[in-house]
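Below is how a single chain appears once it has passed through the pipeline. First comes the sequence as given, then the structure the pipeline wrote out for it. We keep one example in the README because the format questions we get most often are answered faster by looking than by reading.
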Amino acid sequence: MNKNMISHQESLHGAILSDHNRKSKIDLTIPMQTHLTETVRLGKFPAAYGYQIAIKIIYDCLGILISSNSKKEIGDAYTFSPNLNHLARLLYYEIKSSFLDIINDTFKIDHIRDYQDFDFFILCFVDKIDNYKGRFYILPKNFICDNSSIFKLSAMNNTKYDNQKNQNVDKQLRIKKEIVYDFFEKNNLAPTSNYEDVVRLLCTRQLHETVSKNLNPSSEQIRFNINGNIIQGKTNEDTWVNLANYIGPLNSEKYFPSFWLSTQPSKYHIVRLNIGNHWLDSNISVHEAGRIIKWGNQKTGFDIKLA
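Resulting structure:
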C-alpha cells in the first residue's frame, strides 16, 4: 500500500472519530463487545444504536470501508478495490443491527431498502440473554431480499394496497433466533460470526475478488440510451468511445469516475477516446456500467440509461 493511500485512510479514520465524538458519549476505540454493552447502558433507541454500531464498524475498517452519501441511495458504506483488474471496483453495504426480542425470541430488521443498489448486508444481532453478545454476518443482498420462500418481508408503513403505486417502500423482517444462529451461520460470507472475522474480510477486500469472478464483461453487450438515441458499437470498447464522443470532452472528464480514466495508456486503460488525451478502462461489466452512468448522471445532469 502506498504512502498516499495510507495517509488518506488515516485522515478518514481521524475524521470519523472526530465527527463521532461530537455526537456520542461512546468511545469508538473500545472493542466492539464493550461498545455494544455501552450502547445498552446509555439506553440508546433502535435508530440511535443502529447508527452507533454502523459507525463503529466503519471506524474499525481503517478507512477501507467508507461511509456512503445517503442521497445516492447505495447503502450505508462502500469499499473500493485498488486492483483495476477487479470488475467489481466498488462494493456497497447496508449495515443493520437488531437486539433480541426476548418475549418472541426474534430479531427484527427495519428499513430494508431493497430498491437501493447495494451488494451486501452487514448484520449485527445482539443476544440480550447471552450477555449481549454480538454476532455478525455478511450476506448478499439477494439472500434476504429475493428469498421469499424463507424470509417474509413486509412494508413498514401503510397497507399493501396503499403501497401498490409506491416503488420505494421500506420493509421489515422478523427472524426467529434459531434461524439466525443456524441458517445465517451456514451462509455467512465471513468465516465465523465473530466481529474480528467480519472486519478482516472487509479490510482484505476478498469480496471484490469473489464478485469479479462472477462478472464476465466479454459476454455482455453494453448499450446506452440517451433521450431515445441508442449508443452502441461493434464491441463494448467501441460503445464506451461512442458514448464519450457523444457527450463531449468536458462532460466526459466529469462523467467518468477518475479511476476509469487515465492520461496514459496502461495495462488496464487501453481504449483511447477521441477526446483530448484520455484512455479508458473498458474491462467493465454491464452491472458496473450501470453504476458508472448512475454516478455520471448525478454529477453532470445527463439522463443516460442502459438500453
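The CA atoms of residues 29 and 60 lie 8 Å apart.

See the next section for the split statistics.
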